[in-house]
Amino acid sequence: MRTAYALLAAIALFPWSVFAAAPGELRTMAHSAYEWYDEAYPVAASSLGDHRFHARLTDYRMSEVVRRRQHVSDLLAQVRELATDGWSKDDRIDRVLFESQLASMDFFGRRLNPEGSNPQLYVDECSNSIFTLLQKEYAPRRTLALAAMSRLEQMPALLEVARTNLTEPVKLYASLAIESARGGDDLYGVSLMTLADGLSRAEGARLVKARDGAVKALHDFADWLETGLPKMPDWRPMGAASYNYLLKRVLLLPLDAHDVAHLGEIELARYRALEAMLKDPSLASPDPARAKHIPKDEAEFLAAYESRLKEIVEFLRANRLVTIPDYMGPFQIRQLPEAFKPTSPGGFMNPPGVYDQDPGGFYYIPTYNPKSGNFYIRAAIEDPRPILGHEGIPGHFLQISIANHVPSEIRRMQSDSVFAEGWALYGEEMLMREGLYPDNSPAQGQILRLSRYRAARIGVDVNLHTGRWSFEQAVKYFMEAGGLDREAAEGEAAGAASSPSQKISYITGKWQIMRLLGRYRDREGANFRLGAFHDELISYGTLPLSVIEWLMFDDESSVREAIK
Q1: Could you tell me how far CA 76 lies from the centroid of its own chain?
Q2: What's the maximum distance between 2 C-alpha atoms anywhere in the chain?
Q3: 327 and 362 co-located in one domain
Q4: 42, 63, 216, 352: which has the fewest Cβ within 10 Å?
Q5: How far is 26 from 32, CA to CA, in rounded Å?
């Protein structure tokens, strides 16, 4: 296998003018970089469906961390030096995309230094290392169990490395890591042990020993963090300059922090007003008491939730709103592991990975409780279709499944959150406006509330990371402006602090899609069909919408605005 290091050595033998003249070398460099990444980050590779390294954890010794950072920095510098004179539009687009991928790795690694400040990084490495082995039976259970055993045995050493690396752990991140580390026992003690039935007695005993050692190490790590909490610094923002770099050079947005914040304010005002215009504004707050039937237990709840997707698919097909490829796999609803609850209070979607041979996908929803105050549980009991449309079809599951089949490797590897979340949010309202839900129905009210709190997310993300707001201000804003309960608001604020820019993706992406839709309608005139727009839009892959504008309209002005 040719590594990125070998490629760099080869590149060094030639003048840059010669190398820059061959755009095909860009794709060779990118392919080698992806191979290097998968080997360097085996748990992340597992989540993408590459299981060649499924018995390993990432090497987080600081010497290796620094080496990886330098490697990415060097690659980024070399890509930025490429002269693209004479390159075709497709070649130039791939160069912009690959540069943004490297800029993302460089920014979130070298600039934000999670290895030294964020204990969650290490707890997540442990939980994800097992979670990615349990999602799909890509190999015999014995193979999966042995891989899990190997990863478990490496966890105590990983967490010792974490203690050395964490020279400036942030109090907020540490609190979240403590909760995650102590909340993961079911993942290791119950879910993991479903793999043990194919092991010999000796292997089973070794698995149990490895599991117990890993769980003890996680709890000890949580205790160590808790002891140090009083002396840890509070969460600190990255500042406006770094945030604007993230928006433009990583996300390729033609907007700065001020523009994004202003967009959030406008959309928040609009959706709060639309809620007020409902004949019964209380419909915007999901209420299980209005449901025809309340599931008796978790199993019935998950099965009922999953079954409603069929109604959406039939509606989409009947109205020719989007083409659903034959290669689509099943979409399943599962319970959210407690280890992931602190920063994902609403659950999360796991689409098929870019390397995955199994086309199925999952949506993980919080533990069922008919009396829960959690917005997502209440919404799922009353009418799960808005969230199903977001997470499943026509949302993430459909879009990412299609993106996995794009011919260009660079474009397959681009997983732009702004387009992904924007498309899923756009789909919620599109289904409502095309007639899936009656006027003044709970589903319609839910969609308005979902857009309202997604708009509130923008203000939180921008103001937290540019330093204008404290964490508590962010929580209160989610409750007052977004209409969320305290539990959901705290989880949302924690997620915003932990994942800069993710929370702006929904409304920002939806706005960009609406902008393209209007332009597409004007171009097509009498030939316009909404479903044709949707098919073309998601055919390019999960790319930044500024790049899709370039592909769809041969207009690169938004990309130029982002990278100027």
Answers
A1: 23
A2: 71
A3: yes
A4: 63
A5: 10
For residue 182, CA distances in Å to 75, 209, 210, 217 come to 39, 18, 17, 11
Could you give phi then psi for residue 331, rounded to 5 degrees? Answer: -120, 120
Nearest to 494 by CA among 37, 178, 139, 157: 178
**Residue 363, φ and ψ in degrees, nearest 5:** -125, 125
Please tell me the distance from the alpha carbon of residue 83 to that of residue 21, in angstroms, as a whole number: 8
Tell me the DSSP string of 106-147: HIIIIIT-HHHH-THHHHHHHHHHHHHHHS--SS-HHHHHHH
Report the SS3 class of residue 331. strand
Q: How far apart are CA 300 and CA 298, in angstroms?
A: 6
The string of DSSP letters for 485-516 reads -HHHHHHHHHHHHHSTTGGGHHHHHHHHHHHH
Q: Which two tokens stand for residue 210?
A: 């490895």
Is 562 domain-assigned? Answer: no
Evaluate whether residue 561 is within a structural domain. no
Residues 207 and 286 both lie in one domain: no
Beta strands in 151-292 (DSSP E): none
Among the listed residues 37, 47, 38, 44, the one whose alpha carbon sits nearest the alpha carbon of residue 68: 37
Q: What is the pLDDT of residue 549?
A: 98
Give the pair of three-digit tokens for residue 445. 């009210």
153: which 2 tokens? 């045995």
Among 459, 494, 509, where does a domain finish?
A: 509
Q: For residue 562, give both structure tokens.
A: 């982002």
What is the per-residue pLDDT across 310-368, written as a single tens digit (0 to 9) for each?
A: 999 999 999 999 999 999 999 988 877 665 655 566 677 888 999 999 999 988 887 78
**Is 427 in contact with 399 (CB distance < 8 Å)?**
no
Are 82 and 26 in contact by the 8 Å Cβ rule? The answer is yes
- As given in the structure block, the two tokens for residue 84 are 């693209």
pLDDT tens-digit readout, 83-132: 888 999 999 999 999 999 999 999 999 889 999 999 999 999 999 999 99
In a domain, 198, yes or no: yes
Residue 74's domain comprises 4-112
Burial of 549 (0-12, 13-18, 19+ CB in 10 A): buried
